UniProtKB/TrEMBL annotation:
SUPFAM superfamilies the record matches: alpha/beta-Hydrolases
Any one GO MF annotation of this record: arylformamidase activity
Domain Alpha/beta hydrolase fold-3: 91-182
Protein name as annotated: Kynurenine formamidase
Alphabetical UniProt keywords: Hydrolase
Species annotation: Hyalella azteca (Amphipod)
Length: 330
């Protein structure tokens, strides 16, 4: 009799040698294209071209995120398709880059096909390391989400779908936890409308090759610019119980999730996504684990610029689900 597969575990890789751990946290080394060219450089070049092409045909603007008293006012967000009418879909995108690379000008061209389908896209910026800290980035993304919530209410768009790629998944999920104070009545929302403050404006969350558990990164090259301690890494991990158990305080039970990975992500990335999806199923009614075949950590998002991309079509179906739900309940 064949024994059952081992239960996925966040700490299954903790006894790896330093060299093997470096391999697990190096997405480019798992790409089938790694032997032929620099995978990261190829992504950057393609993303830059696709952003330029998208901005040439899609109306967009860059605006400053509302500052707080003790934080700077240089954080921006890019809004694509703000002229789209009430009832349009809304995607909020948070880029990756291990909290130290990339920016809003290197997110690729996913905004183009989404705009063509009648979806507004907001790309959030944040201060990458070494100038920014991971906890500071979380606060900046939270500020961006606050502004998106206000803009959505003003424009009467559909509930937002928050999409985070790689480190962007961690930032988005942790930023949502900052709404807990509002939902409880001791934050900016004051609790006067706890449901709206708590997250009914968010319809769904899509993580793409997400980073949910940071402790394995502490002793690798990734942490050189971040300077995280083991305790900080745990506190900033969406997969930590003290974090994911707070999500129901800020998101409705009907919030939908897609936890996606690339076929050629590292085994650790994929297993952590398995664990996180299983965890979310204990809290929310719709959690789908999705693997994008014939893709790696980089082209899984770069290919979203192509209208025929199957994962793009899945994302569009996901966004449209909220339009049908809203119509049926109105």
């Amino acid at each position: 009799m064949t024994p059952p597969p081992p239960t996925p575990s966040l700490d299954a890789y903790r006894n790896l040698s330093p060299q093997d751990m470096e391999l697990q946290v190096s997405p480019s080394r798992w790409s089938p294209d790694a032997a032929r060219h620099d995978v990261v450089a190829a992504y950057v070049a393609r993303a830059r071209r696709d952003v330029v092409a998208c901005r040439a045909r899609v109306p967009w603007s860059r605006r400053h995120v509302t500052p707080t008293v003790d934080e700077d006012s240089n954080i921006t967000m890019d809004v694509y398709g703000e002229q789209l009418p009430a009832g349009s879909g809304l995607v909020v995108y948070i880029h990756g880059g291990y909290w130290q690379e990339l920016n809003q000008d290197l997110v690729g061209g996913l905004m183009g096909p989404l705009h063509d389908a009648g979806v507004v896209v907001v790309v959030l910026g944040y201060t990458t390391a070494p100038h920014g800290t991971v906890s500071g980035m979380v606060r900046e993304v939270y500020r961006g989400l606050q502004d998106v919530r206000k803009l959505r209410e003003e424009k009467k768009w559909q509930p937002a779908v928050i999409v985070g790629w790689s480190a962007g998944a961690q930032l988005g999920l942790q930023a949502l936890l900052h709404f807990v104070g509002e939902a409880r009545g001791d934050g900016p929302g004051g609790g006067e409308n706890a449901e709206e403050d708590g997250g009914s404006w968010v319809g769904g969350v899509v993580t793409i090759s997400g980073v949910f558990y940071l402790p394995p990164l502490v002793d690798t090259y990734v942490n050189a610019a971040l300077g995280l301690t083991s305790e900080q890494a745990r506190q900033l991990s969406p997969a930590e119980p003290g974090n994911y158990q707070l999500l129901p305080a800020v998101l409705l039970p009907t919030t939908r999730f897609i936890i996606a990975t690339a076929e050629h992500d590292s085994p650790m990335f994929r297993e952590h996504s398995d664990v996180y999806a299983k965890t979310l199923r204990q809290l929310f009614s719709s959690v789908h684990r999705h693997e994008v075949l014939a893709s790696d950590h980089f082209n899984i998002v770069a290919d979203l610029a192509e209208h025929q991309d199957l994962f793009l079509q899945r994302l569009l179906e996901f966004v449209r689900e909220f339009s049908s739900c809203t119509s049926s309940s109105s």
